[in-house]
């Protein structure tokens, strides 16, 4: 038999959990409510961050077209795009030489930079020993951090005199110099993304090829590169974007003559260089025509990205 004190103690012990059960649910509900509110705030913040890029593109697009379209219409779209003369003092504005110059410089950069970049990526991902990777990869990544004006200065004091000396030309500021510098500048992008694409190829592909009797080099070119082609094309796309948009380095080595390119050793002027060189002192129709050059550059880059992205998508399939 239990006495009265023992019974009272048991009742108190049973009542305490009951009291806690009545209090804890309320706290849990409040905690869950505040957590849900806080998570919603974070979601909204992330959405605003994600919207920044889209809003920026929309605002820039509207501003460029609003500033440049009136000049294109005033000059005449065909006359502006296909005109071969750029003489602001006579109010003659034809951007065809700059369009061709931009295309040629970009093609030169692709011819020089893309093969070197892809082969470097193959070397780093498949052939290089670990100690050498620790040297080459940081060196390649360091190229991405060098300011474009330094590239331009390097081209001006090294590449340009070298072209003058070896090719026996009076001026080394040329399409060739611009292509070499741009080819070097796109290397970090091409190498990094191509290496990541190659390393993403399943190991079973390589093992299966080697098991069938293929050599390592045959496996790289017959199995690994085709499997990684979508990533490699993406690297090329980003490299082209870097080459097309580059300004300062090109200004220092290209010669900047607003004329149709006639030879590798001849001077060129790109669309970006044209805007950067003349915007500081332009006014009136001249200034509007420079914004019109920006419109043409914008359309050119968009068309290029669409074409290359479609190619990348088809390659991925």
Task: Label this structure with key terms.
MetI-like fold; mainly alpha; 317 residues; 2 strands; single chain; 80% helix
Can you describe this structure?
This protein starts with a helix and ends with a helix. Helices cover 80% and strands 1% of the residues. With 317 residues, it is mostly helical. It is built from 13 helices and 2 strands, in the order ααββααααααααααα. The protein has helices at residues 4-75, 77-82, 96-127, 130-145, 148-167, 175-185, 187-199, 203-211, 216-227, 229-245, 248-253, 271-278, 285-316, and strands spanning 86-87, 92-93. Strands 1-2 form a two-stranded antiparallel ribbon. The relative contact order is 0.13.
How would you write the strand order of the largest sheet?
A: 1-2
Question: How many structural domains?
Answer: 1
Give the structural class: mainly alpha
- Determine the fraction of residues in helical runs and give it as a percent range: over 70%
Order of helices and strands: HHEEHHHHHHHHHHH
- Rounded to an integer in angstroms, the radius of gyration calculated over CA atoms is 31 Å
CATH superfamily: MetI-like
What is the class in the CATH system? Answer: Mainly Alpha
How is this fold's topology laid out?
Elements: H1 4-75, H2 77-82, E1 86-87, E2 92-93, H3 96-127, H4 130-145, H5 148-167, H6 175-185, H7 187-199, H8 203-211, H9 216-227, H10 229-245, H11 248-253, H12 271-278, H13 285-316
Antiparallel strand pairs: 1-2
Helix pairs in contact: 1-13, 3-6, 3-7, 3-10, 4-7, 5-6, 7-10, 8-9, 10-13, 12-13
